[in-house]
Sequence to fold (284 residues):
Amino acid sequence: MKYIDHHAHMVSRTTDDYAQMALTGCVALTEPAFWAGWDRSTVEGFEDYFRQLTDFEPKRAAQYGIQHYTWLGMNPKESDNRELSLEVLKKLPAYLEGPTVLGIGEIGMNRVTTNEIATYADHVAMAARLHQMVLIHTPHLEDKLKGTRVTIEVLLEHPDLPPSRVLVDHAEEHTIELILEHGFWAGLTLYPQTKVSPQRAVDIIERYGPDRILVAGACDWGPSEPLAVPKFVMEMRRRRHPDELIQRVVWDNPIQFLRQSPRFKVPGTPAEGARSPMAAAQRA
Fold:
């Protein structure tokens, strides 16, 4: 079954992972900017990283027939450094013009500090001003509920940022209802330690249905699984869910969300403008 992984940190993975993902049906993925495992010390370091995401990784993915897109921003872990965050934010608009950049992300909070909230709020304001889509990281473990609440409070301060263009990622059983009831998209992260297993993700789909829910592996340099989405598919099939429902979660839903950016194009699916003559006329 074809699928799209909306959250994969491929700069930290080998080309073998691209090959395995392609063999299991991945045709496109999106890679949010994230923490490299250590705190960077200069804005130039972030600019080099942004160039890696927008120039090198799409070429590497293309060797395996996978289309690579990205999200850019100051990641939650380093956003506590306000001085450096403000420097990165000044540089960010130019990079958002890249042909494979879908929006701002992954942004949010790590420990829900005052500085992290301020940096996150700056990103949200920029997204509203520049009409950018947003991918948001919610904190791990004990900070999850508090961080999700603050995440949504800041978003609600910007009614000019449509909820349908915002993905609140790393949702869990105790936060997904809060995300969905405000009209945002919710991401389930199939991660072996700090997020949800394929089994828990299927439980959530069974309870809440498939509307505005995405699944992804968020594979990175730590313990993680680049084939997490196919394992979710296996669990869905084990429980005898129909292929139509599975396809909706791993294929139709990602396309519905991501194609709100005119830059997102998947082989075999028309661009938004091609589907809508009115939208095409408005662009002319």
About this structure: Strands lie at 3-5, 26-32, 67-72, 101-108, 133-137, 166-168, 185-189, 213-216. The CA atoms of residues 198 and 232 lie 5 Å apart.
